[in-house]
Design brief:
Blueprint: E1 3-8, H1 14-20, H2 23-26, E2 30-35, E3 50-53, H3 79-94, E4 99-102, H4 104-112, E5 117-118, E6 135-141, H5 146-151, E7 155-160, E8 165-166, E9 175-181, E10 188-193, E11 202-205, H6 219-234, E12 239-243, E13 250-255, H7 259-277, H8 281-297, H9 299-310, H10 314-339, E14 342-345, E15 350-358, E16 361-365, H11 371-384, E17 388-392, H12 398-411, E18 418-420, H13 425-433, E19 439-442, H14 445-455, E20 462-465, E21 470-474, H15 481-493, E22 503-509, H16 513-525, H17 545-560, E23 564-567, E24 582-585, E25 602-608, H18 611-619, E26 623-624, E27 626-630, H19 634-643, E28 648-651, E29 663-664, E30 666-667, E31 670-671, E32 673-674, H20 676-681, E33 684-692
Parallel strand pairs: 1-2, 1-3, 3-4, 4-11, 16-17, 16-19, 17-18, 19-20, 21-22, 21-27, 22-25, 24-25, 27-28
Antiparallel strand pairs: 5-8, 6-7, 6-9, 9-10, 10-11, 12-13, 14-15, 15-33, 20-31, 23-24, 26-30, 29-32
Helix pairs in contact: 8-10, 8-12, 9-10, 9-12, 10-11, 15-16
Length: 693
């Protein structure tokens, strides 16, 4: 894969910076990326190996606590750009990546490090301010500086096109002046780190090497560029390849976090959380309300990204976004009520009340199958409750995680209160080592058990949303078998069968078994599998390559033990992780497909003689997430639902989640509850007040 240099976008002469790096410079191992504050493409920052901060309009004076009214001030500032490039700088420092600051870029680095600017060099003898063309003058490089090492020169001719400069009496923290103007004004012309230990390469210059006359020969342009490129080529960051499961093509390579970057992000979260907690609940709710409006604003882009990352049909990606908004609405409507202080006793000598305080900094180790819906269960009530969130998206849906973070900050969540942990299992394991105040995980039983064991000694909240082997029973009193078969089919294959609450085994009363199987199979055969971006597609690829072989293994195991395949049963030839929707009959609980979680469009349908047999088979599982019963009689269905040791039961529906009801698993399906008012209270801790006097 190629190394990437991110160049910050400027409305003035951006192409000059881009063209400065020739094809001969880049060869076949480096490419350029435009990082644009106008497009707010922050996700591209996570893919870069180094950065150039370019020139342009003055920095907003609020960044260095100065007055916005001064001679030659612009008609308007670009605070969005300042904030966007602040993210670039912080990311470069977090990951120790090479940074080259040019003109305005140098000034931004200085103010971000706490320095100040001389706001206007407007005197008549100003040798720096551009008129009809750049001005040229001599610069002196400090001895023993990085600049003198790179240029191998103590002085040289450079160009100028600026009316602001670094205040030499207010240079930013840990920065030192490495060049100044040779003229009497001694204007600061270059900055670098004073202590370079544990930092990436950084050089900032006030001039414009990208358009310097004779730049091809000048050491103050060519040498700087070549050293910067050499530093880029030294970078050996671990990267994650995001694969489109429909095409098997790489969507993007994203930089993975390290233990050092995770520890630094945790420090930022812990530092930022108290200020966020001090914001009134109503204002935090309003912030999340803006987040919902941003989901609407960006819905097409969000849906396409989600489909490209995990393969679900595009309409289902839109459905997930709509479902996320619906679930969030519950929190918007109810959080103030359930987070308000409660007076238990206002009478007598001692008054008593309960106050709900945030846990602090919590980790959300999330899943790939419903990245928005699964995240909403945790991050929304956590943020409304005043917590900071360390969010680890699945390594399969990292771009979606980046979109969520971007929208959170655009909505007004405080800076560093929603940080991403990017990486595979090792990154999640590192989160378990950090002194977080709660852990909320969605995924497999195996990983959930590992997490619970690893953090048990911390005695902090741990909630686990795990898998299921969810049963569904169709009784003999149902009337419209075709409609029920259609409903059950959707419960099996929706989201390509990759739902923790998907129907994973079906039991049908013997009196209607043949009719049900016939209808279900006929409908399954009509399903359209293919490109998930195509509106006609109902079945997309599985998200993970290894899952195809896992499901084929379940099918082969069932066939060897006597099952019959009525539909599907094979991989779909061609590119992508596709498997045919599969119907198995003559199944029993000696087969893996009826006992192990499948997580795909594969179903076993088993005949039962009565309700008692159905109950016995439905209960024969280590999981306890959901169970469904289809019947004309609620009383008859309720008898079965009461016997189910599951967190959720359904009558005449399945594969459904509501924001108003608790989402919880039993046995190997999880620990704790999210959603409902219980899911609001899950992210706060009560404090009892005894008030006398």
């Amino acid at each position: 894969m190629k190394k990437r240099i991110g160049i910050s976008y400027t409305k003035t002469n951006f192409q000059n910076y881009w063209n400065w790096f020739t094809s001969e410079d880049l060869k076949d191992d480096i490419e350029l990326v435009k990082l644009s504050f106008e497009e707010n493409n922050t996700e591209e920052i996570f893919t870069c190996d180094g950065f150039v901060l370019t020139g342009g309009i003055d920095i907003d004076p609020s960044f260095y606590n100065a007055n916005a009214s001064y001679a030659n001030a612009p008609d308007g500032f670009q605070k969005d750009r300042d904030l966007f490039e602040k993210k670039i700088f912080e990311y470069s420092q977090l990951h120790q990546l090479p940074l080259l600051g040019i003109c305005r870029g140098m000034q931004l680095v200085n103010v971000l490090q706490g320095g100040k600017l001389l706001q206007d060099l407007s005197a008549s003898n100003n040798i720096h301010k551009k008129e009809d063309k750049d001005k040229e003058h001599e610069v002196v490089a400090e001895t023993n500086s990085l600049l003198s090492e790179i240029t191998r020169s103590s002085s040289g001719k450079i160009n100028s096109a600026h009316h602001q400069a670094i205040d030499k009496n207010a240079v930013g923290k840990d920065l030192k002046i490495s060049a100044y103007s040779k003229s009497d004004d001694k204007t600061v012309e270059a900055l670098e780190f004073n202590d370079k230990a544990g930092k990436g390469f950084m050089l900032c210059v006030q001039w414009h090497p990208e358009r310097l006359n004779g730049k091809e020969e000048s050491p103050f342009s060519q040498n700087i560029k070549q050293r910067f490129l050499a530093e880029i080529r030294k970078i050996t960051m671990e990267k994650i390849a995001l694969i489109n499961p429909a095409t098997e093509e790489v969507i993007e390579y994203v930089n993975e976090d390290t233990q050092q970057t995770l520890e630094e992000k945790f420090k930022q979260l812990r530092k930022a959380q108290p200020a966020w907690a001090s914001v009134p609940v109503k204002e935090r709710v309003d912030c999340i309300r803006r987040f919902v409006s941003l989901i609407d604003k960006y819905k097409d882009e969000l849906a396409k990204t989600l489909t490209s990352e995990m393969g679900k049909p595009l309409q289902q990606s839109h459905n997930e976004l709509n479902g996320a908004k619906a679930k969030i609405q519950f929190f918007l409507d109810n959080s103030e009520k359930w987070l308000a202080e409660e007076w238990i006793n206002k009478d007598g000598a001692t008054k008593e009340k309960i106050v709900y305080e945030p846990l602090g900094v919590i980790a959300n180790i999330s899943a790939w199958n419903y990245p928005y819906l699964v995240a909403i269960n945790v991050v929304i009530p956590a943020l409304i409750g005043g917590n900071a969130v360390f969010y680890k998206p699945s390594e399969y849906t990292i771009l979606t995680g980046m979109h969520i973070q971007k929208m959170m900050y655009e909505a007004g969540v405080h800076e560093h209160c929603f940080e991403l942990a990017i990486g595979k299992g090792s990154v999640g394991a590192t989160l378990l080592q950090l002194p977080l105040n709660g852990y909320f995980f969605t995924g497999s039983y195996k990983t959930g058990k590992f997490i619970a064991e690893k953090i048990a000694h911390k005695l902090v909240p741990c909630q686990l949303e795990l898998g299921g082997k969810d049963p569904l029973y169709v009784m003999d009193d149902v009337e419209d078998i075709n409609a029920i078969a259609s409903n059950v089919l959707e419960g099996v294959i929706y989201n390509n069968g990759q739902s923790c609450c998907a129907v994973e085994r079906v039991y049908v009363h013997e009196k209607i078994y043949d009719a049900f199987v016939k209808s279900y199979t006929e409908q399954a055969k009509k399903l359209v599998a293919g490109d998930p971006m195509d509106a006609k597609t109902e079945i997309g690829p599985l998200s993970r390559k290894e899952q195809v072989d896992f499901l084929i293994g379940q099918i082969e195991d069932a066939k060897e033990k006597g099952a019959t395949v009525l539909c599907g049963g094979n991989k779909i030839n061609g590119k992508g992780y596709f498997i045919e929707p599969t119907v198995l009959v003559n199944v029993n609980h000696g087969m893996k497909v009826m006992k192990e979680e499948s997580f795909g469009p594969v179903i076993g349908i088993q005949k039962v003689k009565d309700d008692e047999e159905a109950v016995a088979l439905m209960q024969d599982t280590e999981y306890g997430l959901t169970a469904a019963v289809y019947s004309k009689s609620f009383e008859r269905a309720e008898k079965i639902m009461k016997q189910m040791n599951t967190g959720t039961v359904y009558w005449n529906c399945c594969d459904r989640v509501s924001g108003a009801l608790p989402w919880s698993g039993r046995k190997h399906s999880g620990l704790g509850s999210t959603l409902s008012y219980q899911g609001i209270r899950a992210f706060v801790q009560p404090k009892a007040y005894h008030i006398r006097g």
